[in-house]
Design a protein that fits this description.
The chain is mostly helical. Helices cover about 60% and strands about 5% of the residues. Strand 1, helix 21 and strand 2 form a beta-alpha-beta unit. The radius of gyration is 27 Å and the shape is elongated. The termini are far apart.
């Protein structure tokens, strides 16, 4: 296959597909540039780093590691330091990362097919497979989270491992790439600490397939193994020194110490994913077959004493095994940690471009065993791709046409928007002083609010994350411990910004838990905190009212020009009053009233 065709399929096509998919996702969700709430947590740390305050969730606060990707946080900090509109630049970065990841996956499958005349058709299928999925496109672009970077890490790992086990000669460039990737993976996500083990294993197998003896094969695996060990040791030592713990807060806050509970939850998560994506289930079955058929062969190669280089058929078996192990390993990691609560299976989206590779590699392996020349019938391969590509688009479990309503992701963007509104309203409502604010969703508000934000879920609060507790309960929201809360005593708890023509009724509905989600938060997530006598002695339900003459939130709300164009706020509130409600310490209410603020407070008896 020619160089121009290779570049077109592995570079130009993925970039075009990523751009189109991102544009469609922006229009579908109608939340330009804001990202999901967890992405806003990354932004809070990036802003602190860019301003020279270190890894602080609150400006000037103690170091925290409430982010899951150190490398992504550093990239965001660089953007915050250079870009006047960082959200837009961050979106562009994610589009480029996603395109690069899928391009690597397409290039991998074409290389597996020996770059034959029909290999390009396989690359096209991989690109379409990836971006035909609205979930993949959303989680790797407009979510503004670390999914695209983690996907690129997976695809780079697969590309390097497959090249190594299929190459007929060793390469110092591959050794150097293995060292760099092994050192980088633990910093991309915590799971990278385990995933990086694939690199020395592939270098060991590749060397043995090329006829190297045991000592030479170990020598080939040693550089990446040492880089992996050094990265683990260095990152752990740095975390202990800076944060006082070996893993991010997110691990302690979200993952239960009950391993059996995690396994049960994780198996259910995997089952739901495969049930929702039948084609992914078939791909996982092919990966399992690739391991069953080729594991004994690979172990024999590693343990044997052979000195002859393997043929094309043996290398094809090694490639099939390598891709199968990577995919099965990627499916297993969330099982061990108990899955996730986000819609559309966030943890499996970075693996999505690779899932189609094991069945392709298995088919090519069988072709090699039969002595068939791969790509001998390129017209048939391209015809099949032309049929398969649109079939993949229309067979998505949740198609683009109804993805917004069916995906359960729209609320994640809305939470980030609401948090930014709440933060801005808190700034306006407290001129000259900034109360500490205890929150459940801790992203958007941290970006907008200028005071201390206390993350009651523990993601950005080590004291809460490390507090005793089994973490069984609301998935990823079971870390709250009342005793830690009463030690911290935030001034305001659970703020909510709304516009209403009846502020008293809105406050009463909020406190009474009229909405099922409010009742769920009160009873399950906050573990009945609001009914605790200690809480009611100090905090009361209250609302600060803002009016068109003195708004709490600037009009328009959005921080970026695209947002102002896309969703303008009306100049007239139409009779509705701005309401910033929550649970305020009694002395905070008194102070606000003494400053002339329009404050509505309820007694606990009135709120029944």
């Amino acid at each position: 296959m020619g160089r121009i065709h290779t570049i077109a399929i592995s570079v130009a096509l993925p970039l075009a597909a990523a751009t189109v998919a991102t544009f469609v996702a922006l229009r579908a969700f109608d939340h330009p540039y804001v990202g999901m709430d967890d992405a806003n947590i990354f932004m809070a740390y990036a802003e602190s780093l860019a301003s020279g305050q270190g890894f602080a969730y609150n400006a000037g606060g103690e170091p925290q590691e409430g982010f899951t990707s150190l490398l992504y946080t550093l990239l965001m900090a660089a953007i915050w330091a250079l870009a006047s509109e960082p959200e837009g630049a961050l979106l562009l970065l994610n589009v480029l990362l996603a395109a690069a990841a899928v391009g690597l996956a397409a290039r991998t499958v074409m290389r597996v097919a020996s770059d034959g005349p029909g290999a390009g058709a396989l690359g096209v299928v991989v690109v379409v497979w990836a971006f035909a999925s609205p979930a993949f496109a959303t989680w790797t672009s407009v979510a503004l989270m670390d999914g695209a970077l983690w996907c690129l890490a997976w695809c780079a790992l697969a590309a390097l491992c497959t090249v190594e086990v299929s190459a007929v000669a060793g390469s110092s460039a591959r050794l150097a790439a293995g060292v760099l990737l092994a050192a980088a993976l633990p910093a991309v996500r915590p799971e990278g600490m385990a995933v990086a083990a694939a690199l020395p294993a592939s270098f060991l197998l590749g060397a043995r397939l090329r006829g190297a003896n045991g000592s030479r094969a170990l020598g080939a695996a040693l550089p990446s193994a040492l880089a992996w060990a050094a990265a683990l040791a260095g990152l752990t030592a740095w975390r202990l020194l800076v944060f006082g713990q070996p893993l991010p807060n997110t691990y302690y806050a979200k993952v239960s110490p009950d391993r059996v509970h995690n396994l049960v939850e994780g198996v259910a998560y995997l089952y739901d994913f495969l049930a929702a994506h039948p084609l992914a289930g078939l791909a996982a079955g092919a990966a399992l077959a690739g391991v069953v058929l080729n594991l004994a062969f690979a172990l024999g190669v590693v343990n044997g004493s052979g000195s002859a280089a393997a043929g094309a058929g043996e290398r094809a078996r090694a490639v099939s095994l390598t891709l199968s192990v990577l995919v099965l390993g990627g499916l297993a990691v969330p099982v061990l940690t108990g899955g996730d609560h986000f819609g559309q299976f966030r943890f499996y989206q970075p693996l999505w471009p690779l899932m189609i590779l094991p069945p392709i590699a298995l088919g090519l392996e069988f072709a090699e065993r039969r002595g068939s020349e791969v790509g001998a019938r390129p017209r048939l391969a391209w015809a099949a791709a032309c049929v398969l590509a649109p079939a993949l688009v229309v067979s998505a479990p949740v198609p683009w046409t109804r993805f917004q309503k069916s995906s359960r992701l729209d609320k994640e963007f809305a939470i980030a928007e609401a948090g930014r509104r709440e933060g801005e309203a808190l700034n306006r409502a407290h001129p000259g002083w900034r109360p500490s604010v205890g929150v459940i969703t801790a992203g958007g508000i941290a970006v907008a609010y200028e005071g201390e934000v206390v993350d009651l879920m523990g993601l950005n609060l080590a004291a809460m994350a490390r507090a005793a507790g089994d973490r069984r309960g609301p998935k990823n929201h079971a870390a709250f411990q009342p005793e830690v809360f009463f030690e911290l005593r935030p001034d305001v708890v659970w703020p909510r910004y709304v516009r209403s023509d009846d502020p008293a009724a809105a406050l009463l509905d909020f406190v009474s838990g009229v909405r099922p989600v409010d009742r769920y938060m009160q009873d399950k997530v906050l573990r009945g905190l609001l009914a605790d006598p200690r809480f009611r002695e100090t905090w009361v339900p209250a609302a600060i009212l803002g009016r068109p003459a003195a708004p709490l939130v600037p009009d328009p709300f959005f921080f970026v020009p695209e947002g102002r164009r896309h969703r303008p706020q009306p100049d007239d509130l139409g009779g509705r009053v701005e309401v910033l409600m929550g649970y305020f310490q009694r002395d905070q209410v008194a102070r606000l009233q003494s400053e002339g603020a329009d404050v509505l407070a309820l007694s606990w008896r009135e709120s029944r």
